[in-house]
Amino acid sequence: MRGVHVDPRALTARAGGGATWGDYNYATHAYGLASTGGIVSTTGVGGLTLNGGIGYLTRGQGLSIDCPASAEVVTADGQVRTASAEENPDLFWAIRGGGGNFGVVTSFEFNVRPVKDAYVGLFFYELEHAGDLLRFFRDWIRDAPREYGAFPAFRVAPPLPFVPEDRHGDTFCVAIVHWTGPMDEGEKAMQPFRDLAPRVAEMCDVWPYPQLNGAFDGLFPKGIRSYWKGAYVMELTDEAIEAHPAHGPHAPDASSTMHLYPINGAAHDLSPSDTAFAYRSATYAAVILSAWQDPALDVERRQWVRDYYDAISPHSERGGYLGFMAEDDADKVEDNFAGNYPRLTEVKRAYDPGNLFRLNQNIVP
Ligand SMILES: Cc1cc2nc3c(=O)[nH]c(=O)nc-3n(C[C@H](O)[C@H](O)[C@H](O)COP(=O)(O)OP(=O)(O)OC[C@H]3O[C@@H](n4cnc5c(N)ncnc54)[C@H](O)[C@@H]3O)c2cc1C
């Protein structure tokens, strides 16, 4: 069920429930079209969209759940239903952010828009500039044109050709920036990230959108062990910023990082109660994640994530993004849905009263 059918006249793409974003991009890019997926192209269209979907195109097109026109859902009673604004609108509301709680989505129909290439900038700064980067990002991203996407991160430098060889394996604070406006304005669009601090390494170029969406794929091969924590941030105060440099620089390897994704631009065009995704009013979604191969590292890697999360949580909301929850976050489900939780339990009772779909961030009917 990985097929993707694009209708370039209607500007829609229908993706099977098992498609990855890589499958989706491959089909839509042929027409110079795209809709919001995540940061990694090996993730599924199904799970990521049901969680909400935060990605490169969020500021321009909204969350992944803001792009669907409809979905085909097999509910717990075995019925095949269409969920859309016109048919089963309560189910359509709930699957846009409510996770896998309401049925098996056999296909999604998305509205797609012209996005062919992105002007991409990767900027590596010395760790002493972490505070400068986070403060600049906070002030700049608030009103930046919607053609921009960007997020700061802490990252161990992989052996990339544009990173000086003697700095491979060192940790940096990094800005990942992209521009989907006119490509001839891309070079100028990167300038603010050059001005903010000296760069140890920098790469700026035009990439086809699927290349951008797949840039981190190699860091998360299939079967890798992982642990995550996520937090929504309403306001990135100076105190919140100070919590990062104590932990981010200790990221143990290139597959361990903190990304601070902006939730603004088109994501703010809807209100928190318009879809099940309750935290549109947040300004950022932070994710702290570690991925590793060797089971002997389980305790150490989880501890790095937990310690980092503990440091930022006093400056964050109680709820976090559903897609960034670890298996020990089951007690946070209600917090993650905030004011939308009561309505979600009602829809759950209507479509899955026996809680057939419970191996997830579970909404108890
Ligand atoms: C490497 C990596 C990077 C990520 N980056 C991002 C990101 O940039 N943005 C973001 O928003 N999230 C991101 N996530 C989190 C992502 O939203 C969740 O991990 C999501 O569950 C992935 O869905 P999947 O279909 O790939 O996974 P699966 O393991 O296949 O599914 C996870 C769960 O989703 C539900 N589900 C999946 N497909 C369906 C379907 N068709 N019908 C009904 N239920 C379904 C089920 O409950 C299932 O147990 C990332 C995850 C990983 C592993």
Order of helices and strands: EEHEHHEEHEEEHEEHHEHEHEEHHH
Distance between the ends:
29 Å
> What is the count of β-strands?
14
- CATH top level of the domain at 4-114? Alpha Beta
Summarize it.
The chain has 365 residues and is α+β, with helices and mostly antiparallel strands.
Question: How is this structure best described in words?
Answer:
This protein is an alpha+beta fold and 365 residues long. The chain has a domain at 4-114: 2-Layer Sandwich (Uridine Diphospho-n-acetylenolpyruvylglucosamine Reductase, domain 3), CATH 3.30.465. Helix content is 25%, strand content 25%. The chain has helices at residues 21-29, 45-51, 58-61, 89-95, 130-141, 186-189, 191-195, 209-213, 238-243, 298-312, 333-337, 341-351; strands spanning 4-7, 12-16, 33-34, 68-74, 80-84, 104-111, 113-114, 117-125, 148-156, 171-179, 201-208, 225-233, 256-262, 284-292. The strands form three sheets. A seven-stranded antiparallel beta sheet has the order 11-8-10-9-13-14-12. Strands 1-2-6-4-5 form a five-stranded antiparallel beta sheet, covered by helices on one side. Flavin-adenine dinucleotide is lined by residues 17, 38-40, 43-44, 46-48, 50-51, 53-55, 99-100, 104-105, 220, 323, 359-360.
